[in-house]
Specification:
The complex is a heterodimer. Chain A is of the alpha/beta class. Chain A is 27% helix and 32% strand. The longest helix of chain A is centred in the first third of the chain and has 16 residues. Classes of the chains: A alpha/beta, B alpha/beta.
Chain lengths: 248, 316
Amino acid sequence: MNILVCISHVPDTTSKINFTESDTKFDTTGVQFIINPNDEFGLTRAIWFKEKIGAQVHVIHVGTSAADPTLRKCLAIGADKAYRIDAPATDGSAVANELAAFAKDHAYDLIIAGRESIDYNGAMVPGMLSALLDMPFVPNCVGLTIDNGMATAEREIDGGREQLKAHLPIVIGAQKGLVEESDLRIPNMRGIMQARQKPFEVVPSQGAEAKTKDVSFEKPAPKAAVKLIPADDIDQLIELLHKEAKVI
Amino acid sequence: MSVLVFIETENNTLKRNAAEVASYGVALATLLNTSCKAIVFHATNPETLGQFGIKEVTLVSDAPTHFDAHAYAEIVAEHAQKNEFSQVVVSSSADAKYLAPILAVKLQAAYVPNVVNLPQSTTPLSYKRAAFTNKAFAYSEVLAANSVIGVSNNSFGVVEKNERCAVVPSSSASPSTKLEQLSIEKVTGIATIADADVVVSGGRGLKGPENWHLVEALADVLGAATACSKPVSDMGWRSHDEHVGQTGKPVSTNLYIAIGISGAIQHLAGVNSSKVKVVINNDPEAPFFKAADYGVVGDAFEVVPKLTQKLKEFKA
């Protein structure tokens, strides 16, 4: 089985978000970048398939060389080969088109991307990729088994779960639940050494065009100070929620 | 340049979020000086969309009876192309976020998700949308002729119009499906995090799963959904579909009550777009107080039952 895991390279979850150049660019100063957590859940499941039923696991990223350490980390935790499509990740549509052009030339049985990236939160790349490749797609995936060319996938829905079945190839939008947090791998020294020998290929861009452009950014307005209510005056809280906030 | 609103249903009736997406679509059409119509699958009450200013809705009956994103996207795309709708408005529910990217590819449209307001400008179209898990907003310009707009939950609100709405049956043929639905499990009768107006959430401060009756009792009085922080789901006190935060579910509700949650940056990111936040915590230094509107410094085991009791009296 050939698995492709799409990797986004995002600011660490604890990062403070700031912008530079008159609020037109994300300020990377002091920001540590990580594998997008949703992608990492997907990659971990891919490596599980590799170990249990045998698979080749490739990782791919669309972007600049800034993400190379993130891709090396993917190799260190068990991916077999890394690709980087050398194109600026301008918007979700451009990224999906670059990935689709690449995937068309390679026979992948399973393509995994995170449910959404934790930076731009578009939740669009896996769905667009599936449409471009005319493959079935299961987003918010919290369970995936593969048997005899058939995938059974569980999708988290508002207030429940849905079980879906399809022939491979299939596109999955991974999230927590597909594997647990405790299943995530930390690269060990052997993995890091091996990663240096693993193939890492830079692929030229297909020149996919963006359909949207982020022209500027803004941080939420600073919050007014919290109104503290004494613990023995709950009536006041109810009064405020009713009359001032008008939410009850 | 006309606007099409995709309306979702639940058990063949319009979902609650229909009111907000319809209101948004009508306002967008007014701004663009064009008309707004809707499309809905298997609904028994589509004419009620008139309440939010929709004058015509296409009712599709020849399609899978459960939500099938691939089939539905194909039908909506065909309908939009045939009738020259250039702007399609959808919600931010799990189903809408499933449908929208597929639909955008079929329409060769731009997809702008998590939109919080009407366009800032119309030439070019530019939308304000939530990004960086609600730690910031982006202003996104649309570079394509067509667009799919995902309206963030509880961001625009509902505008009552009371128009008469005509229901037009659709004649499109049902496309083949790519995915076989094996089963669906759904809680019924209780509010879900995605749909609820109020969410009551518990953290490690509650000391153990056996104390969750406090959260549930408060949620019950408010008709609220229950949620939890990441450590709580990681320790297995609650199932992880209740986990809200950066890697869990986003919460965008009118009232969010956090009990015994300190307010790690990842948790705050996930709940930031909720309108009013109430924090109950015995630690006055808990970072959540800085992000809250109202706070009670006190022991959850005393404050929460008292709040539940008082709310019962208030509601009575």
